[in-house]
Each structure stands twice: as structure tokens, then as C-alpha cells.
User: Fold this.
Amino acid sequence: MRALNACVAAILMSSVLLAPMGALHAETVLLRNGVIHTEGAQGTIEGGSILLVDGVVTAMGVDVVAPERATIIDLKGHAVTPALFGGVGHLGVIEVEQEHTTEDSTLHLGKMHPEFDPLFAFNPDSIPVEVSRVEGIGFAVLEPGATGARRGGLGSSVIAGLASVVRLDGRNNSSLKALSVRLGESAQSLAGDSRAGAYLLLSQAFEEARDPKVAASHEQQLLTPAGRRVLQSVLAGQKPVLFSVDRAADIRTVVEFSQREKLQAVVVGGSEAWRVAPLLASARIPVILDPLDDLPESFDRIGSTLENAARLHRAGVAIAFSLRADSPHMERKLRQAAGNAVAHGLPWDVALAALTREPARIFHATHEYGSIATGRVANLVVWSGDPLEVTSLVEASWLNGQRISLQTRQTALRDRYLEKVRSGTAR
Amino acid sequence: MLIQGATVLIGNGARLDDGDVLIEGGKISAVGTALPAPADAWVINAHGRVVSPGLIDVHSHLGVYPSPGVSGNDDGNEATAPVTANVWAEHSVWPQDPGFEAALAGGVTTLQILPGSANLIGGRSVVLKNVPAVTYQAMKFPGAAQGLKMACGENPKRVYGDHGQAPSTRMGNVAGYRAQWIEASDYLREQKAYQASLKAGDKAAAETKPPKRDLRLDTLAAVLDGEINVHMHCYRADEMATMIDMSREFGFKIVAFHHAVEAYKIADLLAEHDICGAMWADWWGFKMESNDGIQENIALVDAAPKGCAIVHSDSQEGIQRLNQEAAKAMVHGEALGLAIPPERAIRWLTQNPARSLGLLERVGTIEPGKMADVVIWNRNPFSVYALADQVFIDGVLQYDRAHPRLTPRSDFMLGQPAAPGVLQ
Assistant:
């Protein structure tokens, strides 16, 4: 008995000793011989190295010396980028789109609730989050949905609620909020079946926020006190406003409205933005667009063209990318869309910036996302080839300083059936 | 016309480096190296470029769900009854859909237009050549058989179940199909018996009224008679197996399972029954029956002995870049150690879809005697940066990237702001 107790004590002792040992010997990894697209002050470093100590970039350049006990990974000249942007969508709040019980993006109360925050429904364990993460996506914007009445119930609102920047490292987290507003065709059914009605509602909401007396005098107040506080923070310049809008005429109205209300406007969608590019450039309004938009799929998008990104860039408009289909399952396709923008005239480095530093800048998240810099926690991806090419794959990735597993439910399915196909028994 | 010095992806798995393709009278007349140019030939220097057969999409709704997607143009699903074998997709096709010209820029020369998937039996498909025309008749692939669109799974049971009518379950789906085949078998027997007695000179038969014709049963009987093959929308492996059983019960041919997201689970079963899997590279998760989608699906179906993998679009966006969709499938297969060079992957877009449409004798590979449907790519087409430089249909230049003003332009786009073409 005494012997056993001694044994237990020894185990306890060793575990006590081990804990500080681990802290004393920080995990040190040197990524060597890569083409590092820092998207930051150091530009692109050929033959570059990145030193990670406990997940923090402590040195980066061509002449980084490996400390003792560092794990050295030879990148063999492969590309390194910051972890990519996944776009503006519903990642983490939709598991299977057509299963309503797994769809939490949208508030269908038939009332305006700018304070609606879908982040409370964000599930970091969602399979689409995992599937996006292993494709090099490190951050995305979770925005509220806005759709008309569904299942005989009520619709949502032209002010859909709050959008958040989320990190896809499997934890609950977020940074800056933005306000999400729908205009144009998608807002019609939310505003008395009138495109103009959306501006009426928007103007009234901001009026209520600005002047509580006005709010009190309305017979039909649009906003709750919490909703007014959200709009007040927007008016104070604390949050950007995402306007989902496509038609050139509607974009012009957004520019006027934003200038009048002194809003930090961001155009999302913007199929016809190229037609008003000089106006957007002078108003310093960025456009988050889908480079694959090229068909007149609605009367708001008659002027769609594959050259939208290139034309906006030439006019001096800042751009970032997001797929129009806001499916959480397809955010991994955004990289392909960026490559297509390059095929249609956008410089390659601008396309990569539209997946990295530009969305980070638009969403005030450059301290964490969109670039690789010394002193910062690692959010980076190693690619097998050109990061914008469809035939390139993720070789390794670090998010929030941790190297992530590239295994998913999908790779488990693949591995289960791979051998059956190989042995001729897949049936 | 002689295309000279290209890397030629034949479409059947073979590749010819520094190859020439001779086109005469709208047909491919020779493929080889250092072919002599006929005296009056238009010679195209294709050194450094890649030539492939025109791409074939077996699953498109262009024309029946055109752009703009407004109610007046919404003609893809006759969702008023679960069986509408009487309708023909060609009667819904709007030839002015701007999606056709966008698909042409992506190298698509032949496409099958299908009714939607709301119904158990949706109606007859039509195979079109992607030529600009005012009428669908002028676009029809000469002599191509129609197909029959059927749908498994969630769509029919949701659409009709929500209306409180059958089918509302998968077992209801299967009962629904089988009742139709029983009726069609009787109909076919009566029609055949009548024709046979006429042929035999049966006077009584000549004087009796012929059996009443029915459009729905005409279609189904033609399927049982082997004139029309079935293209079946089916995601799940277990449902595909059910459909194979049903096709054997009634004696008809399923040529392809479309959207076969779980085809990798039964790759050998599909090969054994000579059924192609028509698939997306990476669509998944939008409904339960697509929840098990994996990016290796196409490569695994292709890897099975005698497997037939097809990359399809079902999308006005995807049809514009089938080459990129195939490239994604290719690289995920290669990551498993499968050897998939471009000359193999191109089969997913050419030979295999042609086979499923019964048109392999006429298109799908660059071989003498076939229709001269040919794409000249600016580089290896399995790249995000690849663009079609020129697209020929029946030997006629229909798209030329360097001359955007010559590109077909839908009536709908005339006078609209989207300026075509090359960045100024």
C-alpha cells in the first residue's frame, strides 16, 4: 500500500514538474524557404522564413536564423499567404440550408431590429466552418439574412441587424460589428413592396436614432431603445454600414444617403458598381463584389460584367471579394472567383489583397487579419502552388497561432470509401 | 481550315503534342502531326495553345430558367402534378437567354436542357447546339434523341408533400414511379399489338379505332421501348441503387445519375450497370441529400474500372467554367495518388457526356468524321486563368475572344449597359 502511494506521489510530482517545463521551452517553429506574401509592410519575400514562437511571428525575412530546438519546416519555395477572407455570409449559423431547424441567419419578426445579432447563434463546431477552414479561410463576416415572409410568417427588415467578423478556428470569438442594410430588389418585399419604401424606412430609423423626441412623437416607432443605440453608434462613426445593393441608380442613392448621414458605407454586391466607379472612388466607398457575377440575372444586375473588379480597381475603388450565393458551404470557392477576376483584367496582387488585407481594412480588423507581421499571432496558410489557382491545395495552416488539422468529416468520408473503390467493392 | 501546332486533347484519353486538326465541310477530316494545308485553307497557328473538343454539359436549364430570372421567364418546372411526362423542355426554351453566349465563351458547344426536378417524372429533355438562333428548332442537335428527366429524393416529396398530396416520402416517390411504368407497359403492349395486327393485314384491326394516344404515356412507352433514355436526378447512393432495381423491373435504361453527390459510395455498382455519374466538383450541404459531398467524388467515379464520370453544371455560372470545375476534381484525385493528366480529365467534359447522350459517334472527341466542335484554349484549360480563345461549332467560328463584337449577343442585351468584351 505504501509502495502504491509512493508511486502515485511520483506521478503527481512528475506532472507538476512537467507543466512549467512546457512553458519554459516554448514551441518554436521555423518555416523556411517560402514565397511569403505578407500583405503588410514587408511586401512579398522570396526565399523567406517565418519564425513562430508559441504561435506568434517573432521574426520574418530572408535571414532568419533557426534557434536551437526549433522545428524546421522546408516550404520548398511554396507560397505563404495570410489566412484568407471567406466573404460576407452565414458561415456558422446554417448547417444545412434547406433544413429550417438548422438555419439561424435571419430574424423573421416583421419589425426592424438593428440590434439583432446572429453571432449568438454562431456555432464554431459547424461542419461548414471546418470545411472552410481547411481550405485556407481564416476569417469571415457573419451577417444577418434578410428575406420576405416565409412559411406564412413574417419577413425580416431592410436593416437586417449586426454583422461580425468571426475567426474560423473552432472557437467562439468575434471582433468589430457592422450594420447590415438591404436595398434594391432584395429589399422590396421588406418595405411595402417598394424599392423607394426601403429609403423611407431607413431615413425614419436614422431620424429616430438621432432625435429621441422624434422617436417618442411617432405613432409607429420603428426602433426599440436597443435598436436606437445601435444606429447612434453607427452615426457616431463606430461601425461601417454594409449596403447590399446592385443597381447603379441605387448605388448613387446609397452614396448620397451615406454622405448626408456621414456613414462609413460599404457596398456589398455592386454588380453595376463599375458604372458609378468615379463616384465611389471620390466618396471612398469600397465594394465587396463577386467576380463571377456576369449575367443579367435580375433587373438590378443588367450591367453585370466579369470586368467589374478590374474596372473598379482602375478607377481607384477599393475592392474585396464575397460570393453572391451566401451559402456557408461554398465560401471555399471564393479563391477561385478571385482567380477569375485576374483572368479578366485585375492585377494578381490586387486580387490577393481583396482576399486578405482589403477585407481586414474594411472591417477594421487589420490588427488580427489580412497580413503577416512580426509581433502578431500567426494566421497564415502554406499553399502547394499559386494561391489563386484552382489546382493549388492547402499544405499547412495556422490560425490564432495554432497549427490546424486538415482532417474533416469530408476527408473521413473519403477515406472510408477510397479503399472500397480501389478494391472494386464500392457498392 | 487547319489548326496547327497545338497540344490536342483528343477527348478519349489520348493527347497529341504539336498536333494539327484539319476541318473540312464542318467535319473533322484529319488529326495528326505536320498535316499538309490544303491550298485554300485558313491556317490557325495554335503553337503554345491547347485544342479540345467542344465541351458538353448534360445538365443545363439555360433557356428554361433564363436570365433575368423573373416570373415571366420561369419555365423550368411544370410543378402542377408529380408526373408530367407529357411536357417537352424544348417548348420552354427561350433562345434569347444571355446565358447561352456566356456558356459559349466557356467553350460549351452542346448542352442538354432538362425540365426541373420538382416532379417524379419531369418531362422530355432536348439536346441543343450552342449556336445563336431565333428559334429553338434552329438550335436542336440534328437527330439527337430526347431524354427523360426523372427526380429522386427530397424535391418531389417536398414540393407535393407541402401541398398535402403524394408523394410526401421517398417510399411515396417509388410507388409513384412504379404506377406509371405499369400503366406505360400496358399502353405500349396495346399500341404494339395494334401496329402488329395492322402490319399482318388484319382487316378487323384496320377498321377498329386505334388505341387512344396519350402524350404522357407516349413518352413513357418510348422509354420502355428504348428510344428515350433516362437522366435521373439522384443524390444518395441508396436511392440510386433503388432506381437501378426499378429500371431492371420495368426494362428501361438509366444513362446517368445527375447530381450524384454520393456516387463515390457505389462507384463499382454504377460502372457495372454502365451508368454515368454526372457530378459537381464541390457542391454540398445545401440539403440533407447533399450532406455527404466530397471533393474526390468525380475522381473516384472515374477511378472505378469502366467508370464514367461527367462534370455537369446545373448552373448558369458553372456552365461558363466547366474546365475549372474539372480542374478542381482533377487535383483532388491526384492528391489521392490517382494519375489524372489533362487528356484523361477532358473526357469528363467531352467523351463521357457525349456517351450518355448517345452522341459519341458524332461529337465528344477530335476524330475524323465527327462534327467540328472545337475549342482553342489560350493555355492548359485546367487552370483558373484559362480562357477559350476561339470556339468552333460545325467548323464555324462562333466565338473569338479577340473580337468581342463578333460574339453572339442576345436580343435582350441589345442597348443594355454591360459593355461586351475586352478591357479598354
Observations:
- Chain B is about 25% helix and 20% strand.
- Chain B has one domain: 55-364.
